[in-house]
Amino acid sequence: MKSLRTHLSVAALAATIALTGCSVAGTGVSAISGSGTSSTATSGTAQAVSLDTLAADTHYDADDLTWDAASEVAVTLADGASSVTSGSSDAVTVDGDTVTISAAGTYRLSGSLSDGQVVVAAGEEDVVRIILDGAGITSSTGSPFVVQSANEATVYLADGTTSSLSDAATYADQGTDAPNAALYSMADLTIAGTGALTVDGNYNDGISAKDGLVLAAGTVTVEAADDGIVGKDYAVLLDGAYQVSAAGDGFKSDNEEDEGRGWVLINGGTLNVAAGDDGIKAYNTLTIAAGSTTVEESEEGLEAQHIVMQGGTATVTANDDGVNASGGSATSASSGGGMGGGSMAVGDYTVEVTGGLLTINSQGDGLDSNGNASISGGTVVVNGPTNSGNGALDVNGELAVTGGTVAAAGSAGMVVTPGESSTQSGVQVTLGSTVPAGAVIQVADSAGTVAAAFVTTKATASLVFSSAAITQGKEYTVYTGGTATVSAGIGEGSLDGATEQGTLTAGEYTAEQGPGGGGGGPRW
Q1: What predicted TM-score, i.e. pTM, was given to this entire model?
Q2: 10 Å Cβ neighbour count for 124?
C-alpha cells in the first residue's frame, strides 16, 4: 500500500480524464467473493479513467480488494456479548457494546448491536479491512461506525448480505473533529463489495471521510439530515449503485484549503441523488466520465469551479441552476450571459462537455458558467426556465461549440448563443408565442429534410440548436407540430401536420437581451 500519495490537481485531473476508453478488464473494481483461500476483484465494466491512473492519484488500488480469507478475524456482534469467534483476537477489544479494532488486518463482522459502536483505532501505517456480513449497528449517543485512525480503511459489503448503520439524532460529543456521520472516517476510506448497506444519518451526514473517499462497488442507500456522502479531499464513484436522499448536499468533496483537493469523479456505476441543496458538488473539479448519474431533486444540480462532462449519462433536475460553474477558489461577479463577452465579470470557471449525454431540467439557468464554456462532443439537452430572468444557457465569457449536439430550450428573455470561436453552426429560434409542454419544434432545410426535431418538457419560447446537421449560412424553415421520435427530447421528425413558422439562416444569432448579450432572433 502507498504511504505517500499524490493528489489530483485541476490540471492533472484534466490530463487524467483524457484517457477515455482505457480498459480495466482483468483488474476490475467490483466486489470480490470473499470465499476460498483468497479473494480477487472482478469486473467486466470498462472505465473512462484507468485504475492505474486512479491508483497514482488516490489512495485506492485494486489490490485493496485482495486478501487471504484464512487470515480473517470473525467478530460476532451481540448486545452485551460481542466476541471474536475465529482468528486472532489480539487486535479486537470489547468494552460493553463498543468493539475496538486496533491493528491492520481483515475483520468480518456479523450480528447486531441495538445501541453500540464499532471503532477502528489502528496505527498511522495500518490498512484495515472491515467486512460487513449482515451486520446491523445502531447508536443512541453518536456514530455507530468510526474510523479514528488508520492509513486506509475499507468497508467491504459481503455478497448476498444487507448491513445497516444508524446514528443518533443528537450526539453526546460535538467537539472539534468529533464524528458527525453514521459512517465516519478520519482516514482514507473505500467502500466495496456486492452486498448492500443502508445508512441513516439522523444527526448530520450519512457517510463522511475526512481524507479521500472511493466508492468501488456496493448497493448503498443513504438518508441524511444534512449531507449524504462526503469525501473531503476527493470523492470517487467507480461502480455500484448509490441512492442518496439528503436535506443538504447529496454527493460532494469539500476541501477548500489544500490546493488540488476538493474534486469529484464519477467513473462508473449508478448514482441517484435527491438533495435539499446541491445535488453533486466539488470545490475544485467535478468530472462525469462514465456511468449513470441522476439528480432527481436539488436547488443547484451540479456545482463546481470546473465541470467536465466526459462520458456516461447525467440527468439533472434543479429548482435553480442545473449546471453551475461557480464558487471554488476563483472569485467573480454574479453570473450572467453573453456571446463571447459582455458586461459581467469572467472568472476562472469552466464547463466543458466532450462526450456523454447531459440532460438538464431547471427553473433557473440551465447550463451556467461564471467563466467560459465549451462543447466539443456528446449531447447537451436543456429544458430551462420559463421566466425571462434566467436562460437555458448562461455564460459570462465565451460559449465555444465545436462539435456534439446542443438543444437548449427555455424563455426568450436571456438567450445565450454560440460565440465567435465556435466552428460548428447552429440556429436560434425565438417563437412569437410560447408553446406548451409536449410541443414539437422542427428545423428543416429547403428540401424538407428535418435537421432537428425537439419535443419540449415545459412551456418554451426559444430554442438554440447546434449539431453537425446544421450547415453554416444555409437557410432553414422552422415548424411547430408534426410528429417526432425522440430520446432525451431530440431525434427524428416528420413534418406531416406541422405548421410553418418562418425561416432563418444558420449561424446568424441576434443579440437582444441578457447581461452579456444573447436573446432575440427571428420572431414569427
Answers
A1: 0.88
A2: 9
